[in-house]
Amino acid sequence: METISLNDGRTVMVRGERWPIAGAFTISRGAKRAAEVVVVEISGAARGIGECVPYARYGESVAGVMAQIAEAARTLGGSLSRETLAQALPPGAARNALDCALWDYEAKAAGVPVHALAGLDVPRPVLTAYTIGLESPEAMAAKAAGCGHPLLKLKLGGEDDESRLRAVRTAAPDARLIVDANEGWRADGLAALLDMCAEAGVELVEQPLPASEDAALAKITRAVPVCADESAHDSAGLAGLRDRYDAVNIKLDKTGGLTEALTMRAAARQLGFSIMVGCMVGTSLAMAPALLVAQGADWVDLDGPLLLAEDRECALSVDGALLHPPSAALWG
């Protein structure tokens, strides 16, 4: 843990936390058993808090993100704000934690909720997908049959994906399905895999190809809408994805916080993309600001806390598959 005193009387505290996952969570790149998160607290006239999840895929670590946050706080000092932060840090986890903490701080100091501060409507509950990690066809089918969620997100990207998908569809014939390959497929077999998904009634396929190889998506007929995840980080890169993807997955840990996520949502809509709002595996604190972005989204995947063995106090309320907006005691 580190505390930085700013020259306007505020303090910025940054710490790392570890939240065990219920079992293991496996995708095409490997398995994890805990969510490693970074929490920022800004104190002064009020107290604001934010959480991010450093992601190794983007070269991030807990130690590295904590160092970025501390350096930005020292450099900006009393001028630390959402506006100056956007110039001091690139999009990513470090900027996300600070940006969300600043939103929370400003809202509490003003005595209004974040949605009002941002000029947004009162948030409503959203239907979240429930993610089933990459396992054997039998294990994935058993989880699909027993979870009771109407919208399932299946992690694929391994051998025998067809058997996995067929097993899940048989076990949960009425469930809506999203597939996430996490860059695990290759261009030479992509058309057949998308046809397989179409036959199973899949609504959306996330990031089937590595981001460095996704130009191939512009050259094939997509039997199922395809969503950019690892290929889409912030609003600046959206126009270059229009011929390859039908939707974009907006995650605050990629955009660098709520500020840019709202900008990216507006830009994506203007360009004709469908919208998915997603998350890394983190606590309710990380999901709370994302719920504002998720209002009106075509798909929502904010089930990170549902995958944990335990969550924070004042956690988001879940009613079946409906995720409710946070209380002020958590964030916002």
From TrEMBL:
Cofactor(s) named in the record: Mg(2+)
Residues holding Mg(2+): 180, 206, 229
Cofactor binding: number and manner: Binds 1 Mg(2+) ion per subunit.
MF GO annotations: metal ion binding; racemase and epimerase activity, acting on amino acids and derivatives
Keywords: Isomerase, Magnesium, Membrane, Metal-binding, Transmembrane, Transmembrane helix
SMART domains found in the cross-reference section: MR_MLE
EC category name: isomerase
Residue positions of the active site: 155, 251
Gene3D superfamilies given in the database record: Enolase-like C-terminal domain, Enolase-like, N-terminal domain
Keyword Metal-binding on entry: yes
Entry superkingdom: Bacteria
Residue spans crossing the bilayer: 271-294
Enzyme Commission code(s) on record: 5.1.1.-
Domain Mandelate racemase/muconate lactonizing enzyme C-terminal, residue spans: 137-227
PANTHER family: D-GALACTONATE DEHYDRATASE-RELATED, ENOLASE SUPERFAMILY MEMBER DDB_G0284701
Stated family: Belongs to the mandelate racemase/muconate lactonizing enzyme family.
Name of the protein this chain belongs to: Dipeptide epimerase
Lineage summary: Bacteria, Pseudomonadati, Pseudomonadota, Alphaproteobacteria, Hyphomicrobiales
